Amino acid sequence: MEYIEILKEENEVITEVLECQQVLRNSVDKKNWVSLLDVISRINLLMDRFNSLDEEREKAAVLKKEDSREEKDLLCQIRGKLVKSRTENKVLSEYINITRGFIQGILEEAFPQNRNMVYTRRGYAQKVQPESVVVSRHL
To answer: 120 by DSSP, 3-state: which?
Structure first.
């Protein structure tokens, strides 16, 4: 595969990843867990494809002397999309951490008997993390 073709395919793959990340965000917002699992699987497959393309691109780059204007533009687009993807991941991670802390606070208030302290091997006190809990909104 030629260098420019690899770049074009990488650009298409990362564009699809960004679209999937939007679906992922909507799935989390709407609490659509089936859709969430499907889109996570799709993103994992796409990123595996992107990583293999990136390895091919690096091998092809060694054989080239210099990049054309089109290749430089594609590289800039890909890097910009990767930054956007990384930002989306960071935002989602922060949302999950905030939500986990909120739920942990509720559980500590609701079940004060579970406040026992656990100590690490080095003797530092460590808060007990709540186990997975599913709350049904349907009665």
So the answer is: coil
